[in-house]
């Protein structure tokens, strides 16, 4: 092995080297008052707007929460125990057959058709022909769509 230890570098003055680093990163001197805190910026950015949940998204989310709380059923609007089908949950969440109810129903049916085929003419017929897991998947996708559409 041939290792060369000599170099062609100019030797440095260690004191000069130490002084250079002290100038680059000076240590605070004892009993020196601390620098005043920086003044607050004069321009403050406003807080970003808070996104409001749209009426369709709210209706869908409330209806799914209703199904989670009271149960889901197929073959009838309301069971003896209070469980509801998808259309029954929509009616309970909307409180009336208003615009949000209609739009939420249309979005839910459209999502059901996307996931389970175009043959479904109504929410009750689709609801009664699928499992709870399949129905829940459509509800969740419809809520996401309403969120992304900001409706």
Characterise the protein shown here.
It is a single chain. The protein has 151 residues and is mostly helical. The chain is 52% helix and 0% strand. Helix 2 packs across helix 3 (86-94), helix 2 (55-70) packs across helix 4 and helix 2 (55-70) packs antiparallel against helix 6 (132-149). The protein is elongated and about 95 Å long.
Would you kindly provide a brief summary of this structure?
Helix content is 52%, strand content 0%. It is mainly α and 151 residues long. The radius of gyration is 34 Å and the shape is elongated.
Helix and strand arrangement:
Layout: H1 14-24, H2 55-70, H3 86-94, H4 99-116, H5 123-128, H6 132-149
Helix pairs in contact: 2-3, 2-4, 2-6, 3-4, 4-6
Query: Helix tally?
Result: 6
Helix/strand order, N-terminal first: HHHHHH
Strand portion, in percent?
Answer: under 5%
Low-confidence stretches: none
Features:
151 residues; mainly alpha; 6 helices; elongated
């Amino acid at each position: 092995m041939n290792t060369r230890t000599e170099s062609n570098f100019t030797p440095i003055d260690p004191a000069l080297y130490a002084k250079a680093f002290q100038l680059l990163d000076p240590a605070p001197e004892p009993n020196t008052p601390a620098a005043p805190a920086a003044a607050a910026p004069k321009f403050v950015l406003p807080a970003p707007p808070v996104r409001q949940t749209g009426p369709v998204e709210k209706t869908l989310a409330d209806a799914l929460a209703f199904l989670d709380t009271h149960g889901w059923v197929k073959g009838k609007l309301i069971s003896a125990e209070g469980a509801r089908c998808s259309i029954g949950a929509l009616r309970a969440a909307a409180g009336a057959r208003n615009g949000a109810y209609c739009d939420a129903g249309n979005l839910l049916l459209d999502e059901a058709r996307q996931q389970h085929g175009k043959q479904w003419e109504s929410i009750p017929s689709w609801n009664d022909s699928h499992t709870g897991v399949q129905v829940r998947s459509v509800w969740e996708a419809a809520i996401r769509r309403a969120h992304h559409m900001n409706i």
